[in-house]
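ARCHIVE CARD
Drawer: 12
Card no.: 0347
Subject: one protein chain, sequence and derived structure
Cross-reference: see card 0346
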Amino acid sequence: MRELKIHAIYHHFKGNRYYVEGVARDSETGEEMVVYRQLYGEGALWVRPKSMFLSEVDREKYPNAPQKYRFEEE
């Protein structure tokens, strides 16, 4: 699995940029969640399972995606 870098900027395959604040754990499941901030608009915080954050783009759903992974470090 790919390594997540904390305090790094990542580019989403749909074009926006995000700053990774850290990793948290779901209180019910213990699953690692990436906490990240959008670097546009209101700068909202988001969370997503770490495994999904680091996953490859679904090529069946997005065959023309410009990058291999859902989020790639800049």
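Annotation on reverse: The chain has one domain: 9-73. DSSP finds one helix and five strands in the chain.
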